[in-house]
UniProtKB/TrEMBL annotation:
Record domain NTF2: where: 43-162
PANTHER family, alphabetized: NUCLEAR TRANSPORT FACTOR 2
CDD domains given in the database record: NTF2
GO biological process assignments: nucleocytoplasmic transport
One matching Pfam family: NTF2
Domain of life, per lineage: Eukaryota
Protein known as: NTF2 domain-containing protein
Amino acid sequence: MIHTHARYTTHASRTTSLNNPRILFTHQPKETIRTVIDLAAGAADSFVASYYKFMDEQRASLRSLYKDTSNISWNGTAYAGPAYREFYLSLPATKHVIDAYDAHPVLASATPDGNCCFQIIVHGTVKFANEKHARRFTSTFLLAPTPEQANLHYIANECLRFV
């Protein structure tokens, strides 16, 4: 799971913290919206570093980032949580190079359960051990709060495409 309440320094060199990411943006002050955007950026930093380290070096650890209800589309093939675990464990060794990533909060008013989520888009290359050349990819992740703890997020939806 990804922790989203930890303190971190933003580009403005100030420390921010958000104890409850379940914010409706209707009539929220700009400072609150900015805080949630900063929180999304911090979550993306943590998530991207953890996810691709796990994928390349500790693949079995990825299990903690998904739930059985997670939906995944991997280059056009759909998987649900447990089936995806079997799939990614069967992949050959990988080495990812991340070129860029971006994150945005998904407004609580736009989600069925009323929780603030984060969308993270990642661009990069992946080299599979059994292939000669690296492939370019784009992945989109939707991180949702766990029902047990609002400051922990899991991968609710993932879509990877080779480009």
